[in-house]
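Hi Y.,

Following your request, here is the sequence exactly as I used it, all 320 residues.
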Amino acid sequence: TDAVFTMSNGAAAGVAPAVQAIPAGRASLERSDARLGVALIIPTTIFFVVLIAFPLFQAVLLSFYRIFTPSLAGPYVGLDLYLELLRDSEFWTSLGNNFIWTASTLFLQVTVGIAVAMMLHQDFPLRAVARSLVLFPYLLPMVVAVLVWRWLFNDLYGLLNYLFVAWGLVSYPIDWLGVMPNAMISIVLVGAWKYFPFVVICVLARLQTIPEQLYEAAMMDGANAWQRFWDVTLPQLRGVLVIVILLRAIWDFKEFDLIWLMTGGGPVVGTQTLPIMVYKQAFPLFQLGKAAAVAVIMFIIMLVFMFFYFRTYGRDRGSW
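Below is the corresponding structure, written out as tokens. Let me know if you'd prefer a different format.
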């Protein structure tokens, strides 16, 4: 009995340090992981502060000063620049154009994107080639795309006017980019053509994951093609469409290069949006403070889009 008791005590004495060593080793490992995590986060934090946080803070700060762009100096005026913008008809025109451009081109992108994705989802010869070609507008450099479309829209030697006159659709060439509403319609069409492949990619990827049993059950219930699309396909696409629409709305709202290269914001301010107004105020007019105020207002509007995006994305992931 004593021997057994001694062996039991010895075993207990030998086991106790081992049991105590496990939490100590785990704590050391956790501290090591924590240090590694901090080391990995530091570069990202530096980039965020340098490239995002500091420029944003600087833009907000500049909006309280009537800064003259060449000298980067000017008096403190508080909220006067914001109050001026609220009384500026050019600002409201640019804001309205921003929403018209965003809503119109987004509607065409989604509509055409879904239709093309549905067609590319069908089984037909050379389907892989067709799927590759549909990406062409999205991959084409912006400058090249704009140059091609400006040639097509040219009122003197453009292909569109030549065909319309030759076919008897119009009696004289149409000024596509020099008058309203032709200029707005033209840039909306070009924007939809340039960016609809993004919608095609997202929708087509989702279509390939919809179970065929849903369509078979709908056909057994007597649903026609439109009813299958409305009752089966569209509900299945809802999640991806919400994300795509919010992303494209954010990107289209801040679009600058396509509109600037197509019309320069003209005629007069007919197609001028807030990003173009920021550029004009900062450089041609040398009013950097006013440009910063416009940019801050635009940022606030973008925050609304971003809020809905993260809210929707988080809800779909089950974190909201």
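The mean pLDDT is 87.

Thanks again,
Q.
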